[in-house]
Amino acid sequence: MPIATLTNIEKTFGQRVLFDKLNLNVYRGERIGLIGDNGAGKTSLFKALLGELIPDAGSAAVNKAIKVGHLQQDPVFDPSNTVIDEAELAFAELHTLSHRMRDLEHEMGRLSGDALEAVLKKYQNAQHEFDLAGGYAWRHKLEGTLQGIGLEKTTWEQNVTTLSGGQRSRLALAKLLIAQPDLLLLDEPTNHLDLAAIEWLERYLSDFSGAVLLISHDRFLLDRLATRIVWLTGCKLKSYKGNYTAFVRQRELEELTQARQFEQQQADIEKQQEFIRRFQAGQRSKESRGRATRLERFMKSDAMVGDVARQHKIRLSLSTDQRAGDRVLEVRELSKAYDSKQLWQDLRFEIKRGERIGVIGPNGSGKTTLLEVLLGRRDADAGELRWGANLNIGYYDQRLGIEEFDPENTVMEEVMADRQASLQDLRDILALMLFRGDDANKKIGMLSGGERARVRLAQLLLDKPNVLVLDEPTNHLDIASREALEGAMSSFEGTMICVSHDRYFLDKVVKRMFIVTPPELEQFDGNYSEWHAKEEALAEERAQREEEKGKRSRAVESAKPQAAKSNAGKKDNPYLRPFGRLSTQDLELQITETEIAVAECQEQFGDPTAFREPGSAQRLQREIEELSKKLEQLEAEYFAREQ
């Protein structure tokens, strides 16, 4: 039985049809990826489920027993709250139950007999609800979620009004995950997240027991999470079992089938039209008119197959007019810091013609700053860089309009600017970027983020650079536009340096990785998945070494009782005891240090971040056991001397 449904939903805005008899069922445990072009109505579909958008026809329903959580793209917070205060609001139910339990405790202290039994029963029910809602572990869960999503402790006492757009999105996501709804409606949850936070979110949603309906252009995320892809196209929904890659295979098969059907249908139509022309007069004219009527009715019906080849898609091809030298860029001892934070220090690397390099790293690690320093837009603190000869550098700025565009210009004016191109070439390029007819005369200030991205790509098409420096080029682009950009970059004969969190794009396009981890920069030959596989293998190897180390320690400890038995009956020799050689002063110092170490380990058990890596809990438990054993031996030695 579905927990949420949309049945024959219809919605129009003026002359525009948004939904046409649209249907959707969401079942428990599903993780549905909702995809579609920008402006297709994905966010409006969420609003229909939430009752915020009233359809013209049809119905939307969510099971009354289902708790729904919705991540909006523009979250609203109480401006008087700090980050931690706002996050704690997600535990409003727990706080209410906790206060209720305390009130019942006070009441039980004043009662006796049957009245006490009645209140005790109420208390037990409240205790049960409290445990089901998370109990006393809520603080650990709160802190673990905030850190996992990328809001570190240094931000917790900040007022929410001081947060950046990215931090506000993270806080909204953290509140939603903490609340543990039965149905999660997530609208682009990976916007503003770095790779570490995205991977944390993947793990969280993989283990989430409720249903997830996820709007996303992150195909890597959809591959990892989705059990079903729902495609909003042509005002309707099409459902495909499996993840994004499975959807692509099914869609390609559908398009191939549709293309064959279209060709067959067009051939049949031509035959009918030829018959109508030949026999529109004469003995068979009545039959001819009948066929004409049936053909006209057929061509207006839903049975007509569309021409897949003529569907609007971006067809992007980046070319260059000049060949660069073999050495494109040389960097030596490059360093940059902000205040007391060293972004990177003594960087050394070379980039050769034709290389396609992906740059990744945590938010705030200096990736965009690195691009700006390389382009001369910012100064380095130390070091030198040298660009090669015959270079035409094109820069894609992720801010898209804050500094790059004039909001009063039309699309055509902004793309043309000081560039030399014929009017026909300009119109052809705008058409490739889906700016057709009156769209070319839209003001830049009225465009969406995705449309501004296409304007910048159109400029790059006209500029014909042989070096591309790209800062998050797939932000704001829908999946179809990302696929067009990937195709263009894969066949681009020039050199590319690209900062991106889009793992699918990095896998498709780049051949070399720069991993920025302040103050260093790691270089890796390969794409994102190859680098990530190497990192996972290293982590597993470290875990195995820790496991072997623990086994050896336990083997040594287990051998000690046997040694003690073999020495039974012999004269006691303090030098043969584990800590018998220590002076009393050293013994006291070691006891103090070991007690501190035990306390620190126990404190780590209360920190959810300590358990992010597989096996970390077991390793921490073994460490506590070993330290406790050592403390027992130290204290035994100390008390032996006191007697």
Structure write-up:
The structure is a single chain. The chain is an alpha/beta fold and 643 residues long. The chain is globular and about 125 Å long. The model has no long low-confidence stretch (mean pLDDT 84). The longest helix has 39 residues. The chain contains 19 helices and 18 strands. The strands form four sheets. Strands 5-6-7-3-8-9 form a six-stranded mixed β-sheet, sandwiched between helices. The protein has a six-stranded mixed β-sheet with strand order 14-15-16-12-17-18, with helices on both faces. Among the domains are: 63 residues; 207 residues, P-loop containing nucleotide triphosphate hydrolases (Rossmann fold); 78 residues.
Strand numbers in spatial order across the main sheet: 5-6-7-3-8-9
Distance between the termini: 74 Å
Q: Please tell me how large the radius of gyration is.
A: 33 Å
Give the class-level CATH name of one domain. Answer: Alpha Beta
Binned strand content = 15-25%
Name given to the CATH architecture of one domain: 3-Layer(aba) Sandwich
- The class by helix and strand makeup works out as alpha/beta
Overall pLDDT, averaged? 84
- Assign the CATH superfamily of one domain: P-loop containing nucleotide triphosphate hydrolases
Categorize the overall geometry.
globular
Task: Return the CATH topology of one domain.
Answer: Rossmann fold
| Helical segment count | 19
Helix content: 40-55%
Which residues sit in consecutive blocks of at least 5 with pLDDT less than 50? Answer: none
